[in-house]
Sequence to fold (352 residues):
Amino acid sequence: MTKTKICIIGAGNISNTRHIPALKTIEDAVIEGVLSNKIERARQTAARHSIKNFAEIDIDAPDGGLSNTKWFKDVDAVVIGAPPHAHYPLVKMALEANKHVLVEKPMMMNEAECDELMALAKKKKKLLYVMHNFQYARNMLKLNEIIESRKYGEIENITEVQFTNHDRRLPEWYNDLPMGLFYDEAAHFVYLLDRHAGKIKVNNSYAVYNKDKSEMTPASLTVNATAGDTPVVMMLNFHAPVCEWYYMVSFKKRILIYDFFKDILISLPTDGEHLAGDILRNSLAYTWQYWSQFIANGVRMLGGKLLYGHEIVLRKFVGAINGDPIDDNLTAESGRKNVVIINSIIDKANKR
Fold:
């Protein structure tokens, strides 16, 4: 069988630690080369992963400056791991070059860019997918199954909590985005809500900023919304001493707590009257589930195999190129919905 030839666009952290390792697990695909706006980064990434081709790309040029790059002409598809504000020119360039495209979240910066490139992909008869990966992480798949089977009944509410430590590795470009880190990271929360509970409506959004006027990311952000008929609360603290992300789904007699960074799913029953026995029982259940999964995923992380669903998304992308069914959770239509909701949150916060 002929392998699908993939080009990686972007030579930063996400390409090196997620996209390339995930693609290497797919037998039907081969990484043909790496492109970056900085030739040395492309060279280093190619050398690190034993990729034979690399080149510099110019997003201001109609063809990316690649008209004489023969190996790029031969690729079937591109996987874009560049900053969000570069998605529009890069996706447009790739589609016009007749390549299938998988782009990192968030898909674009606004609704108009989404609509234009969705139309172009349709015209070119090319696949345009968005990297909504966490819905396919190992333990999120279990949460998907529980929700879809209605094992514990209907969802009562969903709470999303994010703590971000500004001392961690941050992308050098995040302050170029509206509301900074929020714009880059919010898609994970949004596509999960849409999948698990339905169409999202933002009721209100409230941001608090610190005194540093150069910092685009708010110190804190609170969002009240509904997904379908399900009440949703987002509580985000961007100036915390630690990094933690939680996605908590409450049923009438059960709560499911998903830990993004560690890919851990905790399932706890109601604690009833909240008596000592109830508290101890749930504490023991939480501790046992946490540490058993932490050890297993720690081994995967150390081995570079904790890929948070990237490998499944890329496998679905390559499969769809070769005739497998389209996954509606990864399409440009799904990406567009995310962009609309993220911008709605920002607009409502700014109006306040």
User: Anything to note?
Assistant: The CA atoms of residues 207 and 322 lie 45 Å apart. The mean pLDDT is 96. The domain at 4-131 is CATH 3.40.50.720 (Rossmann fold). The two ends are 57 Å apart (CA to CA).
